[in-house]
What we know:
Layout: H1 7-26, H2 37-57, H3 68-107, E1 113-115, E2 122-124, H4 125-140, H5 143-157, H6 166-177, H7 179-208, H8 214-233, H9 237-260
Amino acid sequence: MQVELDLTWMIVGLVLTLRLSVLAAVLPLLSGMTVPPVWRIALAVCLAAATAPTVAAELPAGALDLSWQGLMAEGLNSLGISVLISFVVGIPFAAIRFAGTMIGVQIGFGMVNTLDPQGGGQLSVLANLYYLLGVLLFFTLDAHHTMVAAMVHSCRILPPFAPLELAAGSWLTLQNFSEFFVIGLRVAAPVILVLLLVSVSMGFVVKTVPQINILVVGFPIKIAIGLAALGVSLTFFNQVFQSLIGGMEHELASLLGAMQG
């Protein structure tokens, strides 16, 4: 019995494994400390094995550089591509966490942090709520398929051992990072505006009736009104996060185009 191994498939499979490994490490629900690293590696290997034949069939003849310099350069380029794509994918989740943290501070939950078993640090209660809602919508909208498709599409636009413009992609990613705070403010704006009006109203009450201890009376009022505004704003969270996912797909296409040069 003879077993034949296609060297092109093996090389492309290793390249895809490198590109998908970072993506599997930052994928929602898989990026936490509770998920063993072996599972992430296994996921990257399975996805690479499934997509390697298609990518290898589209490679031009003689595209592979099997020298150790070429293999090392391609390994670094693949890691760079996966890091940039993973950074773009992580912006919506970081933005909604930032929004949840700001809302928690305005309501008065800033001092109530919980241990995040996924990241191993302290996390605001509302930030964790926004993150979990974002993860549920992420898989509901099939955005994980978009991520895998973008990674496979990157091997078509940026085939292995092809020239790469990592500097242009890094600069574009840095420009996209400036939208992180804007997105977070937009998500948290309705609740923050309502709480700002509550604070202004309590200021008028203090000036009108100075005998009232506004700290004792105003704290539960802000919590009640803030949670009510948060509940109302969650009805539009699906639309907001869906627009973020749609924007992520556009940013991924722009990133791949910039790295293509």
